[in-house]
Write a structure and sequence with these properties.
Distance between the termini: 37 Å
Shape: globular
CATH superfamily: NAD(P)-binding Rossmann-like Domain
Strand content: 5-15%
Order of helices and strands: EHEHEHEHEHEHHE
CATH architecture: 3-Layer(aba) Sandwich
CATH class: Alpha Beta
Helix content: 40-55%
Radius of gyration: 17 Å
Largest sheet: 7 strands, parallel
Number of strands: 7
Length: 246
Amino acid sequence: MSKLANKVALVTGGSRGIGAAIAKRLAADGASVAITYAKDSSAASAVVKAIELDGGKAVAIQADAVDTEAVKGAVEKTVATFGRLDVLVNNAGTAIPKTFEETTLEEMDRVININIRGVFVATQAALKHMKDGGRIIMIGSSVGERVLVPGLVPYSATKGAVKIFTQSLSREVGSRGITVNNVQPGPIDTELNPAAGDWAVPQKAATALDRYGRVDEVAALVAFVAGPESSYITGANLTVDGGMNA
């Protein structure tokens, strides 16, 4: 029997990169999966089709993480479609790499609204539907704990906030049998942070394994935290960073 059979998961920002890999992995483990996307409906449809071709169930919901009502609506639509919600993966996030002095207020607001406010809104909406055994999983960042490269000041600040949010919330919902954990990727090869990109050299050099990570390596840890074997892990910050923070 699949580890996540009869479970329903919602992955925000699930149309590409780490989010798409997480959605596919949770579906492979037996969950019915809803993903949100901001604009690229074709990419979201491709993820849904890939899951369905593998025998899984999935749905794509347009909901920009900066739109509070859309985020709440995505949670409600997930429950309306699949009947319940067991796993929330707060994956939607953004970074605008540049020095802090050059960062505009609009850029700061965007990073804060997606990386913190969007997480708050989605989590609050999901908790109304979660029962004992529920899982809330943040996709934080290794720079939420330790920053080894320049150009990520607002981003790292938001991921530090997500870290403490995880720890705080785990205290509130633990009595309900819901776990809250924070998966913190290091440099992962995606469109947003390609292994061949301008910012890649110092990031790769900072790792112990001297390489970028793969999206499936993050998805594997998320799947474990979402599953039954992680039932005594909560309030934890679990880093997948090739030893960047070692």
